[in-house]
Design the sequence.
């Protein structure tokens, strides 16, 4: 038998090869938004616990929550809630066996992203 040259190839697609698609990115984003909501929850719990503790603790917590950091966290959390909600509706639609073809799945992914931004802006203007 002749010498066989082996070529080192990756065992699975890597980031250099794989082109991210909206369906995979929306799946990752659903997980990230679900976990990121814990930050807003922790901030809210800290604010309530500080209110029950002392005036000084509440003043510190209130300064953070009502400052730029709190505004940023709660605004991003509002977007995350809307995104998570729309992604959940998309998954219910898929569970019913609808929209599983690639073009529809991509449209639903973009609908979740764009819809969540639009709903966040509407909510911010209404509140």
Sequence:
């Amino acid at each position: 038998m002749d010498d066989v040259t082996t070529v080192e190839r990756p065992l699975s697609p890597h980031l250099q090869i794989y082109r991210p698609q909206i369906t995979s990115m929306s799946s990752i984003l659903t997980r990230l938004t679900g976990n990121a909501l814990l930050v807003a929850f922790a901030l809210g719990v800290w604010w309530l616990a500080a209110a029950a503790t002392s005036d000084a603790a509440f003043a510190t917590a209130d300064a953070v929550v009502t400052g730029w950091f709190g505004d940023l966290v709660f605004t991003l959390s509002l977007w995350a809630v809307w995104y998570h909600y729309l992604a959940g509706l998309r998954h219910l639609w898929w569970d019913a066996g609808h929209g599983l073809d690639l073009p529809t799945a991509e449209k639903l992914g973009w609908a979740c992203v764009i819809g969540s931004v639009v709903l966040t802006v509407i909510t911010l203007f209404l509140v």
The radius of gyration is 22 Å.
